[in-house]
Amino acid sequence: MNLLRPAAFLAIAAVGAVHVAAQTRTDAPLRLSDAVVGSVVEYTVKPGDSLTSIGARMGVDVSTLLQQNGLDLLAALQPGQTLTVDNRHVVPGGVSDALVVNIPQRMLFSFGPGDEMRGYPVAVGRPTSQTPTGSFSVLSKRVKPSCDVPSSIQEEMGRNDRDPVTSVPSGPSNALGDRWLRLSLPNVGIHGTSATQSIYAVQTDGCIRLHPDDIRDVFERVALEDAGEVIYEPVLMAQVGDRVFLEVHLDVYGRRGDPTLTIRRIAAQCPIPELDWAKVRRVVESHDGIAADVTAGGSDAAEPTIVRWRDAGKVRAR
Question: Rounded to an integer, what distance in angstroms lies between the CA atom of residue 251 and that of residue 240?
């Protein structure tokens, strides 16, 4: 399915080299993208909102929201308060499948006809229950699924003197929410959740978890046997026109080396504009997970050429 073909894409090694067990690697494929999703928006706080819930919904860490708005962690949000939220993310380059999940980025990207793309914050497996990488296909789609409790959780129930539960029917207590996509990757699916504040975190048992609204949207966009890929890329770069955007995340599974080495490899081997290395250093040091303009002489205040975000109609762009 040829849905996105970035103009600038360089693979130093075979794409399959990404699909490895957890170990430190410095020879990962170099993927230069040509697309950024998201925007800088003004968000009006609603009753019941918290920094965690806002960040989970928009794909921004709480620490980044605090920094973007000069807030103290202990300061309470007030309904009607306006927050500036920068939720720009680099779309992984060199992919053409219907679905792509990037573990360190905690984002799922859905590609449709005419290069239409949508980005969704997700929760992924914690380091002790890692989400596996690799190519996959969608094997089944289920509405209001029942949940088979993993043997490890049943064993934990027994250790805590609780009667093990083997299955949970559909409903509010079901960890799968009301939509489930079974993947060809072993013991992994994409599903919803009632614990919406857990999105954009590294805390599942290996599955890929979305906000209820987002899983319904993805569910309708994908078909049985659609192809996808789970990748592991903490460093992402995109050239959009004559500007270069850099996004750096924590290496949550410890699979990559120094992010600066990856950036230098891309800069040396891809025909991109000159970089401002002071800006690059700030992005690496902050690793705030937001796409920033690092072009020499560029300004991060301007919007990227490609701006698409599924919630764009619900917030007011600056």
Answer: 25
Phi-psi region of 138 (alpha: psi -120 to 50; beta: other; left: phi over 0): beta
Which H helix or E strand runs over 283? helix 277-286
Pairing of strands 32-33, 235-240: parallel
**Distance between CA 233 and CA 256 in Å, rounded?**
8
* pLDDT recorded at residue 74: 83
Q: 171: left (phi > 0), else alpha (psi -120 to 50), else beta?
A: left
pLDDT in tens, 190-241: 999 989 999 999 999 999 999 999 999 999 999 999 999 999 999 999 999 9
Of the chain, the percentage scoring pLDDT greater than 70 comes to 75
Q: 3-state DSSP call for residue 88?
A: coil
Convert the pLDDT of each residue in 167-184 to its tens digit. Answer: 555 555 556 778 999 999
Nearest CA to 236 out of 295, 172, 304, 289 is that of: 289
Query: What are residue 37's DSSP bridge partners?
Result: 89
Eight-state DSSP code of residue 29:
P
CB atoms within 10 A of CB 36: 26
pLDDT for res 209: 96
**Cα–Cα distance between 13 and 301 in angstroms, integer?**
35
Cβ atoms 211, 261 nearer than 8 A: no
